[in-house]
Amino acid sequence: MLAVSCASLPRPSSEPGVEIGVASWYGPEFDGRPTSSREIFDMNDMTAAHQTLPFGTYVMVTNLANDRSAVVRINDRGPFKRHRIIDLSYAAARVLGLIGPGTVRVRLEILKGFRAPFAARTSAVWIQVGAFSVQENAYALKRRLDGRYAGVVVTRLQAGRGSYFRVRIGADETAVKELAQRLAGEGYPVIIVRE
């Protein structure tokens, strides 16, 4: 009889949209092959496989051993080994420090307010209050703003030498100046962006 430690079993969290369990990763052997969503797997993208979350869901994954976090987009199904809750791409596993150990306990948090970069086109006016090269810094600011402002999103901008994560608040043209003044009064660097 196989004994399984309770610490390795996936468990729901008392917080809605949060799951704690074991993560693994996959990479070169699947690179260039279709995923369950029919998207071609790129091991250098920040993606992951989950058994039940809808494709396109963004999840903050935190390595409980070293407290590193990364945001991934669900585009595949898996993992197919017992007691694992998520299979990360090579890129995501590298950010989290998972390559060496192969598996690690993680916390998953569904990000309801995250939009893909193309979603920025749905609003003509944005107030940008931060841009970070470190993804978790952008989400820390988003969490601080979420309670007081509606429509806070993080969008990814691919630049020449890397990615930047921009924290933006969608604004109506009639209210943008008032909102920008309020944010500036709270000490945020404010840029009004019209796209």
Give the topology.
Blueprint: E1 11-12, E2 18-26, E3 47-49, E4 58-63, E5 69-76, E6 84-89, H1 90-96, E7 104-110, E8 125-132, H2 135-146, E9 152-159, E10 162-170, H3 176-185, E11 191-194
Parallel strand pairs: 2-6, 3-5
Antiparallel strand pairs: 1-2, 2-7, 3-6, 4-5, 4-7, 8-10, 8-11, 9-10
Structure description:
The chain has 195 residues and is of the alpha+beta class. The chain folds into two domains: 12-110, RlpA-like domain (Barwin-like endoglucanases), CATH 2.40.40.10; 117-194, Sporulation related repeat (Alpha-Beta Plaits, 2-Layer Sandwich). 15% of the residues lie in helices and 36% in strands. The protein contains three helices and eleven strands. It has helices at 90-96, 135-146, 176-185, and strands spanning 11-12, 18-26, 47-49, 58-63, 69-76, 84-89, 104-110, 125-132, 152-159, 162-170, 191-194. The strands form two sheets. It has a six-stranded mixed β-barrel. It has a four-stranded antiparallel beta sheet with strand order 9-10-8-11, covered by helices on one side. 31% of the residues are buried. Residues 1-14 and 116-123 have low confidence and may be disordered.
